[in-house]
Amino acid sequence: MNSNTVCSFSSLSLVSRKNHHLEIAQVGVFVPHVMTSVCFVLFFFLDNCDDALVSPLPSTALTSSSELFSTHSPSFAKLNRRDGAGGWSPLDSNERQWLQVDLGDRVEIVAVATQGRYGSSDWVTSYTLMFSDTGRNWKQYRQDDTIWVFTGNSNADSVVHHKFLHSMKARFLRFIPLKWNVSGRIGLRVEVFGCSYNIADFDGRSSLLYRFNQKLMSTFKDVVSLKFKSMQGDGVLFHGEGQRGDYVTLELQKGKLSLHINLGDSNLHFSNSHTSVTLGSLLDDQHWHSVLIERFNKQVNFTVDKHTQHFRTKGDSDHLDIDYELSFGGIPVPGKPGTFQRKNFHGCIENLYYNGVNIIDLAKRRKPQIYTVGNVTFSCSEPQVVPITFVSTSHSYLLLPGTPQIDGLSVSFQFRTWNKDGLLLSPDSIYLTITKGGLKNTVVSCTSFFTPCTCILPGTNLHDGLWHSVNINARRHRITLTLDNNAATASHATTVSRIYSGNSYYFGGCPDNFTDSQCLNPVTAFQGCMRLIFIDNQPKDLILVQQGSLGNFSDLHIDLCGIKDRCLPNYCEHGGKCSQSWTTFYCDCNDTGYMGATCHNSIYEQSCEGYRHQGKTSGFFYIDSDGSGPLGPLRVFCNITEDKIWTAVQHNNTGITRVQGADPEKPYTMSFNYNSSAEQLEAIINSAEYCEQEAAYHCRKSRLLNTPNGMPFAWWVGRANEKHLYWGGSLPGIQQCACGLEESCLDMRYFCNCDADREEWTNDTGLLAFKDHLPVTQIVITDTNRSNSEAAWKIGPLRCYGDRQFWNAASFNTEASYLHFPTFHAEVSADISFFFKTTAVSGVFLENLGIKDFIRVEINSPKEITFSIDVGNGPTEATVQSPTPLNDNQWHYVRAERNLKQTSLQVDSLPKKVLEAPAEGHFRLQLNSQLFVASRQKGFLGCIRSLHLNGQKLDLEERAKTTPGVKPGCPGHCSSYGNLCHNGGKCVEKYNGYSCDCTNSAYEGPFCKEEVSAVFEAGTSITYIFQEPYPVTKNASTSSSAIYADAVMSKENIAFSFLTAHTPSLLLYINTYFHEYLAVILSKNGSLQVRYKLSKDGLLIFTIDSGNFANRELHHVKINREGRELVIQYFFCCTADSLSLDPEVSKANAYGFTGCLSSVQYNHIAPLKAALRHPSVAPVTVKGSLTESSCAAIMEADVNTVTTIYSSSGMSCQEGNGEFKRCCRVRYSAENKLCY
């Protein structure tokens, strides 16, 4: 290939290489290009890596923890062998035994097989695997991020074969028996299947350079794959750069892998076109990690182990231009544009491919394309480093001996942890701790009266999971504490007593019940890993500790660092920030709009209907249409009216906009921004019953659709970027306006008013209401460039009403009835919410089964709801018990949730039941059957509605239409929600929900809670003439008098609020045909009087003199009388200091009332509301000026309650602690008036 060609591939063939390696296909046709060559390759893995690896090994390659007899040694443990005792058996059968295979070299392992011991009752029924490259630093085989337990044998001679879901690379493999035949012993024969491949070792100063055949390699597609392992957290794995500013770099940074790429866009500054992505964690663990980078133009897929991130590079360029060469393992000649000063990689790389080229294979064969810098070897050197893991916060410790009575001491080691606190070291006289992520050591004197001294290294984040080195040196009276070999930041302290080395050094913790002063632990025990422990400048062999010949330990994993990054992947949803300890992770949900252990649950309702159900009134709210799903919350206006609940989404231009100078060559366009994604708007529209947007086009010599047969001069663009040629008020597919459908256009020859092209202004206005086309995203106008041509347009906000899901319900009429839906896929996070009502004592609401896993929600008894789930660790059951029966035929709410941290169940407002999830074990929920609402096995009788699974809505009604035994819908909402209708409002049943009828209430609004009030000026009054059954007439006949006899004032329920500064005032006056009356007045001194005149009694006067009620503050009065018992209750904002009785009562009728009256109610009649809302229909007369206003707005005040007890003799009493709480109960008779 020369510098004048580009290689682009149009055909495919397969080139198979031996040794079961990566297979490469590279075929192409050459196309002329200028001074560059562009290449890409396709490559495959062929599934032929299945050689038997144990059979050809010498018998010495198999070792074990122990052997029963020489005839049971591991040398007889090859598959199908019958010599010796026919397999391996250990001395004791317990879980501490193991069988190890040394495969000679690092190989790829794809499968294993096992047998029991030939002709015996000894076989293993389950086991785990561990693997290593050195016979040290073992790693457990995991699948689905869980330590995998393999099923073993059921007899001695059958072969059980297991193919790995993901292959492993190792030299050493250990079989760890967990369980075995209860009637025998551990017995094992094994085989391992796999293949070998290429490897290279870089020492931190070496690299491989892959040199191109031409000066510049320009590629629009690149594929790089490799595996690596290292003990160093930093180092460049590969790098390439060009003189135009292009570069690509893959490097380790603090144990994470970063990919930097720049495609050299000349229009952008270097810093603006640079793209960096970081993946992985704890990659310096001396274990193998896989990397795959795929780039096509600006699209890049970056994979580390099993985690992939997709991203696009910045800038406009699609090609990566690299000069001369690519370097692997480091940057040998820094200084070119884009080059970073970085460490070289120190570790091993295998199976290194760049665009199909096997770099290591070329280097091994000394091909001229590869230039080697420094010492690169083709076997992986293994540092003899033995890590240990402290497992428990209470029992783990490591005891190592020291050399006693040496003048001074010296201890150094490395550690890594996620915990902020823990004991690192406690020798005879010093303890070293990590506290709140910082390092601290305290010297404790050998006698108790000396004061301890402390060395602290503040501000260091030592719980970041990275390896940190600690060195503590003490000479005479001086202690020096050094962190990460940084002498400049070392901490120093002096002691009273001289310091000597000790006999014993405790790492990580102290033994149980240990009171000896040799081990002191002021904090919790350490959870984490340690390695490279030196005491008195001598390294400690931790394998000797494992073998029991050095020191002592408890709850340690030796030769294994069990650290795990629980924030990778990040299971905190919706942008939650993840942090972790050794055993779990935590999610910070602040500013996300979500809550819960994993930020799974939205804090917002899914629709305006949900806010209405909470009793909210109109206003701006955030709604989250898919609940816990991926769509974020959206701010909308909820217009919560009596009949429909409207959701309005504003855009950036809802006013009238004038347009001139537009023609087909230079069209006018306006795009609309709803401050939301298209998916959010689509979710709102799809869940609504009806949606609309007003479209108005005002025109003067500006044609709109150019009807009847012309090309439109204006159009709008809707969902899916689709162009639409109909206007508001018309139908999709019909190029008309509203007047065309109604046959009402100004000129009947056209289907739009504006198409008549008249000199005077006219308009076409209507509603766009076809949901699948909404919202309007753009409008285009092209006919305003002629003489006197002008247009003005307006696109209104998106408006929708009706939540199709909130009241979506199904009625299950038999125990055998159920609905089925597709499998519920919720591997790591699941939430289920619904409403139910039933009279049955038990039943299953919902269940979904897998092979072993399942999920179920059921009512076990009238007072008990249970959420059951099994993800492979055994069933977990969360149960909520109610103090009252739940089978009361009322609606009840259930929400069940399961995530990696918790399983929880909420029923109504009862306390939530929360169960913590185990830190280890299976965590993926694997379901494969259909999802059943109700159950085929244990049915449910009753109703279920508003069923959501992970925010997705299940249409119960639609499925119920075609399912026997199930009916769509469920009546009886008022029995559960009638209490939401206040102030005498009546609940009215609807098919989808309910409404509040406020006809007989003094209030209005969706829940009869909005006050109806008005300002009365001097001379203003309202007169309401009672109709049946309370007619008032002077010329009633005898018969009519008999009819009206029942209308005697035997009971009143009166309520109103008032605000005034004028006295005396008449607030309320009621009279009857029988000359009975009731008057409520304010006396001249501001006291409140209630004056009763009943037919058989004299005038009764009740005075409430607890202050001046004409104080420009809002007061609320309730008067209830039934028979001879009267209750007067009033509320006011401020408590009076005392009750001063002033008997002065003046006649207030002539003065009327000046002020504000609100929510006036007399029995079932609301006279003020009738006067304001229905003055032409209601039997009401208004005199003077009556202006609707809000009394509450005039005077906002805190409300205290006052209830006063009065007798006809003026007696009163006071109750409570300084507050007025009065209630008047009076019984009337002809002989006396008794207050009690």
UniProtKB/TrEMBL annotation:
Residues 39-195 form the F5/8 type C domain. Keywords: Disulfide bond, EGF-like domain, Membrane, Repeat, Signal, Transmembrane, Transmembrane helix. GO terms for cellular component: membrane. It comes from the Eukaryota. Residues 563-600, 971-1009 form the EGF-like domain. May play a role in the correct development and proper functioning of the peripheral and central nervous system and be involved in cell adhesion and intercellular communication. This is Contactin associated protein family member 5.
